[in-house]
Amino acid sequence: MSGRLPPSKEPRSAPRSASNIEGSLVYALDIGGSSVKSCLVHVKGDQVAILERYGSARLPSRQFSDVEQIVVQAVGQVLSATPTLSAVGISTTGSVDSSGIVVSAGHFQGYVNVSWNKLLRRDFPRLERVVAVNDGRASTWAEYCANISKISSHIHAVVGTGVGGGIVYKGDLMQGDSGQAGYIGHIKITLDQTALCSCGKMGCVETLASGPAIVRHFNADPSGPNDDYATAFDTVCELARKGDMTARAAFSRAGYFLGMGLGNAMNVLNPSQVTVGGGVILASESIDTLGDGGPYLRSVADGIQAAAHKRVAAAATLRQSVHGNDGGMVGAALLAAQ
User: Fold this and answer.
1) How far is the C-alpha of 298 from the C-alpha of 288, rounded, in Å?
2) Domain boundaries, position 65
């Protein structure tokens, strides 16, 4: 499996964002559970522009050695082609502490106590700055910066196979004493559940609001078609687009549970803004043409109203993420440019 990330010929500008660094060029990578994607980002003032996108490199195994090989090769290729580049930002799955050490990433064997800063600067001494951050926190920073002049405190949730996210309080991206702050997906909202969460416990938001949870809600609905047992998220999405009410209800149910988790977090933080992004939101948006994030995001608002104190809910704005699936890369680039 090659680590080459061939360039796209269609540069695309990202939404407005903020940074206090003028004219920084950053190579940003997003390490997911099955692939690595990357782009070249220019940060200037409050503008973030994706100058060039690179092809997604599929990971051939669950071994960290394959992740390392692909990342190192990709960084080397881009450095060779970009003489002025000196900063790398990495958005990654897994737990990342406040110093940028990837403590563990359960998707991969051996992805434990990894310092991308040491690893990449050892191989590429020209690099002046390498920043690694959890993907949920990276996208949180991207969404916060997109509205930095309007808000002070912010909660962001990323919904896909799991539920990640982060918190910004008074302009600071919260890390926590051990770098674990912002785990929205592991807020407990029920004890009456049998689905085991990735954290090893039950009753977490993630078990009720993620993509796999939507499939479980669909399969468990007694009003669903007995002869059409869905085994894949894409199947439920397609049924929802075709008007299947059981499939749409599964999206709504999952969104409501995310809203409950967010509402509880809001009661603690009292934020000005809450944003929600990730693959599930993009899928929900494709279900209808109302332009409001689809049945999932509409139900997030209902769940927030059910869980948050009325004054806390009234003080916050809920919106869909503006960076979409680019949030991790954009956030990592912004943090590397600081």
Assistant:
1) 12
2) 12-139+326-337
